[in-house]
Each structure stands twice: as C-alpha cells, then as structure tokens.
Amino acid sequence: MARIIDTPLIAGDGGSCDPRTVHGAWGALDAAAQRGLAHTHAVQAATDHLYEKVKHVIPAIEWPAYAPLIAAINEMKRAKNAVILAHNYMTSEIFYCVGDFRGDSLQLAREAAETGAEIIVQAGVHFMAETSKCLAPEKTVLIPDTRAGCSLAASITGADVRLIKARYPGVPVVTYVNTSAEVKAESDVCCTSSNAAAVVEWAARTWNSDRVICIPDEYLAKNVAAQTGVKIIAWHGRCEVHERFTAEDIAEMREAHPGLVVLAHPECPPDVMAASDFAGSTAALQDYVTEKRPGKVVLLTECSMSDNVAATAPDTDFIRPCNLCPHMKRITLEGIYDALREMKHEVTIPEDVRVRAKRAIDAMLALPKEKPRAFEVGRPEVAVELV
Ligand code: SF4
C-alpha cells in the first residue's frame, strides 16, 4: 500500500500538511448536518464503492463525514445533467468521489469542449472555469468559490499584454492557460505545462520569428527557453506554490530519504528543475509514476497531487512536502453542493472577449495531440528577456 510521509522540510503557509485536516472531517460533518444530510444506509450503499478509491488517504472513521455530501452531489449531478471537472490539485474526496473528469488544465479543457452535459461545475480555480466557458458558451459553468484565484492569473492584465505587443510588434504571444480570459483574448495561442515547449516551437516556426513572448510565468518561460533554443520574452509572474521549492530542500530530502526519486513541475525555479530526476506537467508526473513505479518518490508540486497519484501506485512511498495552493483549497464538497443546488457563482465572460480568448485556446487544441512532453533536466540555464 502506498505510504504518504509528510515532511516538514518545506514550510507551507497553512501549518498543517493535510488539506483534509485544514478543512477537516469535522468541517464536512458540520456542513452536511447544516444542510440536513446524514450518513444513512442509503448513503452508505451509494458511496461504499467510492471509499475504495480513497481509503489510502481518508481514515475509515472520517468517511461518514464526507459520504452524505458526496451522495447528495452525485444525485444532483444526475438530476441536473451536470458534470464536475476535477483538477489534479483537488483533495481526494472531490477528485475521486464527485469528479467526472479528472486531470490537468489541458485535459479538462478538452473535456469541457466535448461534454454533453448542460452544467459544468469547475472543481479548480477561476481561470479554469473561464476556459470551460470559453469553449462551451451554451453551458452553465459554475465555480464553487469565487475567491479561488491564482497568483499567476493575477500577475497580468489584458492591458499589460497590449503594452508588451506594442513593444515587440510581430512577435507571437504564447500565453499559459493560467490567465484570465481577458489576457487570453490578447494572445495568439495558449499553452499548458504539458505542451509549452511544443507550442513555443510551433509559434516560432509559424510566425517565422526567432523570438516568442511567453507569459506570464517567469519560471515556466525560463524552463521552456532551456528546452527549445527559442529566444524568450517573459513576464515576472510566479506560482506562489511552486516558487517555494528550493534546490537546498531537495538536497535535504535526498539525504533524509536515500533512493528518493524527485519529480518537479515546470513552474518550479530552474535550479530546482536541475536538481530533480524528472520534470513535467502534472499529467507527465502521473505517467512517470505509473510507468516507472519508483520505490520512493517526491512530487514537487501541489500537496494534494501526491494523494491522488498514490491511489494509482500502491507500491510507491510518497514523501510529501507541505505546499498547498490556498486557492485550490477553497473548493470544498459543501461549496460544490451549494453551487449546484442553488445554481450560484455562474461564470460569465463578455462575448467579444470570449470569442477572442477561444481563438487562442482553439489554436492550442488544434495542434497535434501528443503525450505530455517531459522537460529534460540538467540542461544549462538560458537567459530570457524579462519585460
Ligand atoms: S498552484 Fe499555483 S498556478 Fe496553480 S492555481 Fe495555485 S497559485 Fe495558480
């Protein structure tokens, strides 16, 4: 059975390492009771098979706190023809027990475009819900908590992109999906961490340019520059979760856990990527663990990802640094229940912005579908031009 080993080597901002204990089984129990939901025999019958998926991370004694909300949400989804898109950073009771589609931003964007459901509940952050709305304007898109933002998305505005374009006329703009619709609307093509290097190379070829504007994540841009040989113009946005990892942390973890395999997300700083064994998007990290079955691994990304990958890798021990995304953790079972029940927190986008943002997303989705591309670790750092 996979073991999760919390390690205090890296300080998160929440104190506790376990997102379920931050909100807590008690919180879920309270929330269910306030909504008149209890752990009945019917709830048990409807949810026992779901517990099998999360028993590695939720103690049996806590399950009756979550099960009533899970049963009620799944029932409402059926009644309302709704689906839940669950990002890899959701806690396991959301990811495995109410999520209909699970994955990284790119996978969820594709599902949003193709689902036949009338309602999409985005179990993720606001820019993801906007992406779903861009791709599926005829559907009602709900976000369970409107405060679920993102430090990268907040780092840049559409006006900033217009200024950048004015400074570098004719240079293609590749925008990470972790941005607002307004920013995507000013862009030529979007990318995710699964395809960033491929999209940058494609943009350079298509625009016949030796330079590409790659915004807003400074570290992702630097990591892409090292992979591609394309000159990169970057913005100074950072992911507040991934920027906290350091190469010193990795050295300490390797010393404390001999044989540890270190997997990094490309939103991490370049020296962290260089000190890792493998780097790639959340989908690439999941694939690595599935295929290579390392004995002991650490994922340098958001904390809940380890729980979710551990469910698929029973023989791997997970060392889990405590970096939680405070925005992702705003999404809770009761938030999902309330949004769906009251049809609240609908995401809307002005039509002219939506159409232009969709063009940039579609340009990405039109590129050949390929396996998430790993970042080759150990390549020399390449300077980028920071705007
Ligand atoms: S983990 Fe980082 S990039 Fe992802 S939503 Fe949180 S702040 Fe944004």
Structural account:
The chain is of the alpha/beta class. Among the domains are: 19-149 and 328-342, NadA-like (Rossmann fold, 3-Layer(aba) Sandwich), CATH 3.40.50.10800; 153-236 and 351-371 and 379-386, Rossmann fold. The protein is 43% helix and 14% strand. It contains 16 helices and 14 strands. The strands form three sheets. A five-stranded parallel beta sheet has the order 1-13-12-10-11, covered by helices on one side. It has a five-stranded parallel beta sheet with strand order 7-6-8-9-14. Helix 14 links the parallel strand 12 (296-300) and strand 13. The radius of gyration is 21 Å and the shape is globular. The chain binds iron/sulfur cluster. The site of iron/sulfur cluster has 12 residues, from loops.
Which tags fit this structure?
387 residues, alpha/beta, Rossmann fold, 5-stranded parallel sheet, binds iron/sulfur cluster
Briefly say what this structure is.
The chain has 387 residues and is of the alpha/beta class.
What structural category do the secondary elements indicate? alpha/beta
Poorly predicted regions: 7-17
Kindly state the percentage of residues in helix. 40-55%
Number of strands: 14
Largest sheet: 5 strands, parallel
CATH class of one domain: Alpha Beta
Q: Could you state the CATH homologous superfamily of one domain?
A: NadA-like
Our measurement of the CA-to-CA distance between the termini, rounded to an integer number of angstroms, reads 48 Å
- State the order of secondary-structure elements, H for helix, E for strand: EHHHEHEHEHEHEHEHEHEHEHEHEHEHHE
List the strand order in the largest sheet. Answer: 1-13-12-10-11
On the 0 to 100 scale, the average pLDDT is: 92
Bound molecules: iron/sulfur cluster
Radius of gyration: 21 Å
Shape: globular
**Structure annotation, total helices:** 16
Query: What is the level-2 CATH architecture name of one domain?
Result: 3-Layer(aba) Sandwich
Q: Tell me the strand percentage band.
A: 5-15%
Task: Give the CATH topology of one domain.
Answer: Rossmann fold
